[in-house]
Here is the input.
Amino acid sequence: MAAAPADWSRTVELRNGVTDAACRVPFRRWAEVELHHVDLGVGHELEDLPAEFTERETEFLADRFTGHPDVPHTRLTDGTRAWRTGRTAGEPEITVTGSPAGLLGWLSGRRDGSGLTAEGGPLPSLPPAVAAPTPCPPCPGRPRLAVMTYSGQVTVGGPADVHELKDLMITKIAVGPMDNNAYLLRCRATDEQLLIDAANDAETLLGMIGDDGIASVVTTHQHGDHWQALAAVVEATGARTYAGRDDAPGIPVPTDVPVDDGDTIRVGHVELTARRLVGHTPGSIALVYDDPHGHPHVFTGDCLFPGGVGNTRKDPEAFASLIHDVETKIFVLPDETWVYPGHGNDTSLGAERPHLPEWHARGW
Here is the structure.
């Protein structure tokens, strides 16, 4: 690791696999980075923090409450590790048990303590002013590290954004004159990679893919803005090609594996389920990753965006087909499902579900 900056109060930001020039560290080597404090701006993604981060941050926050007159003597445990906080011993001890993410969320004021159990007394109320994250002081020898929240907001020519899940790493980038999104999925157990939509700018996509290459590339549908770089990417990587069976004839690069509704596509140990969505094109497919450690994630191509379904060219039959398929195959997933569309920002099913009646009424 390169020498750290002289200004230790400056945050060293980790994003997209590397930090700034002061400290370049791949995501899968997070455990080797010397940390003093992790910024808890990650919100609901606490489950995605590596165990080493969670343990150190829990210890840091527990120390902040140690000796506090308004917090009873408390033992925190996730069943494997234990920390003590609050007033000093000499009074009955309350034992609070829960998941690492649950304990960390409660200590940081990000969660209300749901899912935690308390023995020996009620769950302590933590003073909000103390629970709120505060900057840690300069600490020579250890750079502060802020774990950046994935936003899904990318622009053409700008950096990619990385969504770190326990088993899967999702890299999103925008390419081409129609501001297409391309998604690189990497199995964390095997490092095998899969690309969704080689839309444009092969050089940018190949740079994102890196020397490890890709095993496969999935084209969500036959529209030309989603396959402009497909030939070049396949030639450079030798990747298998996947596309919906009914759209494959409209894609100029041969499809190695035609995909039907319900088919499984694998990237390493991770399984994606294809859902055929008819209306934007005859054979559009969405890919659903049902994360066993969290909520589902779905890559919808041009069939679902923030604010509505994809363009059906004012064709009532095409719209009726598309919204039916989206409702019966995508909106059956829970509200927490993260949606990665073919253009623009991400959304969730919970954000879009209340607007389904509006979409029906307007017909697009």
User: Anything to note?
Assistant: The radius of gyration is 23 Å. Residues 1-44, 129-148 have pLDDT under 50 and may be disordered. The longest strand covers residues 168-175. The longest helix spans residues 51-65.
